[in-house]
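Our consortium's second objective concerns turning raw sequence data into structural hypotheses that experimental partners can test. To show how far this objective has progressed, the report includes one record in full. It was chosen at random from the queue rather than selected for favorable results. The single chain below, 167 residues long, was entered without modification.
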Amino acid sequence: MHSTIMTLSHLDEQGRAQMVDVSAKADTERVAIAKGEVLLQASTLALIRAGKIEKGEVFSVARVAGILAAKRTHELIPMCHPLLLTDVAVDFEILEEGTDQTPARIGITGTAKNVGKTGVEMEALVAVSTAALTIYDMAKAVDRAMHMNNVRLVLKRGGKSGEIRLE
């Protein structure tokens, strides 16, 4: 069996955390798409759709929260570079309506883009995570059993790696 030793670029020779120097990399267009889900009671989804959550319009607030979080990813994740994002989008889709026995499922898709020396995967993941947390925060008073699930990167494009589809 062939063994490949991989080095972690966020560690120096002594094993200490470091920010990666990307100054020698070429600027390229970069795109990342992440997805995740919120599982909740069917009755909670009905309240969200009807605009009857006391804290406000859930999807609008969660969209703005995801976009703002993506723009601040470097403040949340220590080794992320501050990036000039050219676009961030957060979208929602009802994946399952739910029943008394099965949860409703809201799908969240976050897309981040830039032209730069490093990718935008973390920004897309932070956008989805924050949008999910915002849905939870806004509806937790009526549904304590809500939970977030399956946040993952599904597409990365740009740089040396080209396009990588993970779903």
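The partners drew two points from this record. The mean pLDDT is 92. The chain is about 25% helix and 30% strand. Both points have been shared with the crystallography group to help prioritize constructs.
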